[in-house]
Design goal:
The structure holds two protein chains of two kinds. Chain A is an all-beta fold. Chain A contains no helices and eleven strands. In chain A, the strands form two sheets. In chain A, strands 2, 4, 5, 9, 10 and 11 form a six-stranded mixed sheet that branches. Chain B is an all-beta fold. Helices cover 0% and strands 51% of the residues of chain B. Chain B is built from no helices and twelve strands. The model of chain B has no long low-confidence stretch (mean pLDDT 89). The chains are: A mainly beta, B mainly beta.
């Protein structure tokens, strides 16, 4: 059974700092990995998706890396801003059959607070 | 274009009653997922629809839970004889499949269900 863990569970950093969020998964046979942010009382917003054949993806100040062999992904946020405060979730997809029956298995999340 | 929409946004019901939650996926998205986010438990997969294939129901917690997807578009998640432990935010997501490859999952705002 796939287990996805995120460390730390909570993180507070001053505005402007660069930071790294970590995600680890137990089954390396993944199809892709996705990072989301969730704002209080709201749904999930997709940030980045990394296919299993890729090593990293970048979008603006965000960079996500994937190391399948070690079961790890990191989300790097550069020059953090107060608007980055949210809960960040990583999720992996495991291809179950040729029909692509896929579901996301979510990590436990990291609650990020950027201090102005 | 319009994103994934869900209704109602909030639902309060009495224990033992049946409830129906609705999801309108992004137009053209063939894959539709239901997830549940319980307090202190994180996100868990419930059910997955892909085109006309038989749905993946492996995540449904009991036979009180069922879901339909009519015409390959709108989906309804039904919970019969609700229990207090059913209280959670129910999230719907959709994605576009191209052959075996799945794109990013886009989430709706969720329905917050409270069972008294």
């Amino acid at each position: 059974k796939q287990e996805v863990t995120q460390i730390p569970a909570a993180l507070s950093v001053p505005e402007g700092e660069n930071l790294v969020l970590n995600c680890s998964f137990t089954d390396s046979a993944i199809y892709n990995l996705q990072w989301f942010r969730q704002d209080p009382g709201k749904g999930l917003t997709s940030l980045l998706l990394i296919q299993s054949s890729q090593r990293e993806q970048t979008s603006g100040r965000l960079n996500a890396s994937l190391d399948k062999s070690s079961g790890r992904s990191t989300l790097y946020i550069a020059a953090s801003q107060p608007g980055d405060s949210a809960t960040y979730l990583c999720a992996v997809v495991r291809l179950i059959s040729n029909f692509g029956n896929e579901k996301l298995t979510f990590g436990t999340g990291t609650r990020l607070t950027i201090i102005p | 274009g319009a994103g994934v929409s869900q209704s109602p946004s909030n639902k309060v019901t009495e224990k033992g009653k049946d409830v129906e939650l609705r999801c309108d996926p992004i137009s053209g998205h063939t894959a539709l997922y239901w997830y549940r986010q319980s307090l202190g438990q994180g996100l868990e997969f419930l059910i997955y629809f892909q085109g006309n294939s038989a749905p993946d129901k492996s995540g449904l917690p009991s036979d009180r839970f069922s879901a339909e997807r009519t015409g390959g578009s709108v989906s309804t998640l039904t919970i019969q004889r609700t229990q207090q432990e059913d209280s959670a935010v129910y999230l719907c997501a959709s994605s576009l499949r191209t052959g075996i490859r799945t794109d990013t999952q886009y989430f709706g705002p969720g329905t917050r269900l409270t069972v008294l």
